[in-house]
Amino acid sequence: GTLVLEAALRSALLALERELSEQQRQRGACGLCAPCLFPPCANITAHCPRSCGRRGGPQANTTAPRGRIMGGSVAPRGAWPWLVSVRLHGELMCGGVLVGRSWVLTAAHCFGGNRNELAWTVVVGDHELGKLGVGERAVPVRRILPHPKFNPKTFHGDLALLELAVPLAPSPTVSPVCLPSGPTEPSPGTPCYIAGWGSLYEEGPVADVVMEAQVPLLSQETCRGALGKDLLTSAMFCAGYLSGGIDSCQGDSGGPLVCQDPTSHHFVLYGITSWGDGCGERGKPGVYTRVTAFTDWLNLQMDSAPGSREPSCFDLLALAQLPPEQQSPERTRLCAFYARSCRAPQGQATCARLAEETCRARMRRCGSSVPTELHSYAQTLVDLLRQAGDFIRNQAHPNSIAEGPQRPTTRTLPAFAELFEAVGPQLQDWVEALRAMAGSSPLVPTMDREQLPGETQLFLQVSCPGLNESAVRVRAVQELYAWVLRVPETDLAMTFQEILVDLGSKNTKGLYRAQVRATVGGRPTAFTGLVGLETDSLARSMPGLVALALEALKT
């Protein structure tokens, strides 16, 4: 009986997810934001729901291991729209993952040799190295923020946030991944995915195109047993195959390990590729920085006000490219950061002068550290920033997409029994199917014959007809499956407390009348049914008892 409830819930969630996905697609076709369909609309917030963790491009079958990054399987173009390449002087150094319109998350150890943000760029929409693709774009890095507790010896806290010089507009090939909504992580054994341009074999050349692989999460005990308990901190985890072969490798550092939420189908970032003992060696899985251990820090950095940090070299060198009348007020704004910590007894004027001197010294250091080949490149950045600012202002709208990563809501899916795949959607369908099993008559699926209520009477707006229709379909599916969707997860069970059999009531099929007490979906019920006392007759009678128990959910 519990299996039936779980299978019914699974069918309901899958049907609802299909309609919600279509609704999301229609929102994108209508400018990403849904109009108010049915007034009043006072509860609509100032921002649209943000989209994250949606794969683009043709998607391969990801139900089984697909080779490896080391040695392996080419990802479809645009399949991982949050994957970026992080480059030093134009050369690939690490992977990274887009977590917001202006933010990329990568590994801190990538910047051990060079922390000068002017030397780094992030390429979004990248697929094939050395070949410019549709949607591919190099974006300057405004700021590098390694985690303050990163330990280059142990690789604890191996995370770095990169603030981009300009915010990115979402597109089919460029969109952020979801960040975890809380500390809960998928259980060991969950299949997750890695992608990058890393070496095809240990000490080998990097891949020309994005490679992808599916790897299972490993428990901390398994990981410590394989690598040594002293090497793995609580902020790390392992993924991969102890048999070897499938793994991340050099050049994949900073890339994402994502797992697909089983309810929303959004991809959620749980790991950043950090380190490993070799590549794909037997008994040595890859090690990843645990993103859930650092979400508070990530949110704090991404939500900080622009003037709360020391001006970056990118900001200070861009001053020289501004029109003369704009340079002085912009310099005052940037240099005001240094006046915050000034406690000179001479007063405010002295503090302002010291702040200006500190700021100019910082500008000189930035100027001397800029590689010669990047000077002309830096001079184009202000125009880029100005164009981006104009674009954002022109696109301002009360329902515009909010910046930053989105955390999906999650509801755990129960195990699915293929036996019930064709049953649904209404409660009566399940009752009839179970009774048919008891009577040896064939199962007849009803989903294809079901017409959604109000479908023919739907009034469609000329501007966005598909969106309005999808909203009605979502509501219709919710109503069709309401009988199981309203059952709390904690009560998703069917238990039989008592079966009192009348031994003098045996019929020609070997069944007896019985009084049954059961709890279905958290609701106690009692009914009369037929039950067998022998193994064969008991098995034949159970579907009928389950059907009678489900009747309790009707009221």
Automatic annotation (TrEMBL):
CDD domains: Tryp_SPc. InterPro entries: Peptidase_S1_PA, Peptidase_S1_PA_chymotrypsin, Peptidase_S1A, Trypsin_dom, TRYPSIN_HIS, TRYPSIN_SER. SUPFAM superfamilies: Trypsin-like serine proteases. GO terms for biological process: camera-type eye development; proteolysis. GO terms for molecular function: serine-type endopeptidase activity. Gene3D superfamilies: Trypsin-like serine proteases. Keywords: Disulfide bond, Glycoprotein, Hydrolase, Protease, Serine protease, Signal. Residues 69-303 form the Peptidase S1 domain. PROSITE patterns: TRYPSIN_DOM (PS50240), TRYPSIN_HIS (PS00134), TRYPSIN_SER (PS00135). Serine protease required during eye development. This is Serine protease 56. The gene is Prss56.
